[in-house]
Amino acid sequence: xxxxxxxxxxxxxxxxxxxxxxxxxxxAGATAHPSAREVGAxxxxxxxxxxGPAEFEDVxxxxxxxxxxxxxxxxxxxxxxxxPSTIRRVHPVFQSRGLHLLDAPVSGGPKGAKTRTxxxxxxxxxxxxxxxxxxxxxxxxxxxxxxxIGVASVAKLVHNCAGYAIQTALAEVFTMGVKGGVDPLxxxxxxxxxxxxxxxxFDRLADQFLPAVFDPPNFRLRLAHKDVSLAxxxxxxxxxxxxxxxxxxxxxxxxxxxxxxxxxxxxxMILQEERAGVAIKVAPEAIQEVLRxxx
Length: 295
What we know:
Radius of gyration: 24 Å
Shape: elongated
Mean pLDDT: 97
CATH class of the largest domain: Alpha Beta
Number of strands: 8
CATH architecture of the largest domain: 3-Layer(aba) Sandwich
Order of helices and strands: HEHEHEHEHEEHEHEHHHHHHH
Structural class: mainly alpha
């Protein structure tokens, strides 16, 4: 990300605990400094990308932190996958000194960073976002303002947690499939061409869950319950632990017991809304507009 800023023609001041991380940037024209405080004193806009909340708070507010060097009016975009509570606690400290903080976590991994194809989700002052959007586009091609301070960090946690939960589920079902006799390459080849494999994960929320429309059904709950029952039974037969599948079956069974067997299978998602104390319902035309804009 820092290399992209240099390539875009920006004058860059850098700090890192590891000198070797700064070396290629310095060789390309960046100026290294011994502390975050000194970087803050020289920059109009600051970017932090750190391992987590504790490191961010130290770099922002510590003895040699940015807050002690940044001049009034200076902006900090935190690219860290951070805790929303940390961002919201640090934000007023910055405000009290005439400084600006926006949370701006990124998604795309090392490849996205190298190719400038990162998504950057930003929470905070929208005017500041608009002012610095061209700089954000020098780092990633998909910047987006999504709301008040902290909400971008919430969105990033939703994204990452979903990814690792799916990873766990895939490990579970693939071990069942391979132990059941399917070659792993063949299994991967065929399931990626099924309905789930061909759909973008989050796009599937647009059909029933987001608009809260579960009737008429696209795929009946009773059929989904049957499918997962068969899968967990196979897991028991093969002595393959199926923890996530069994939790899924519990939800489907509870939904069946509500009398929802002829509703769409995704009606079972309502149970989690009830547990969380939220009701999700988005206007279908608004969903279609997002899909249209994204092509």
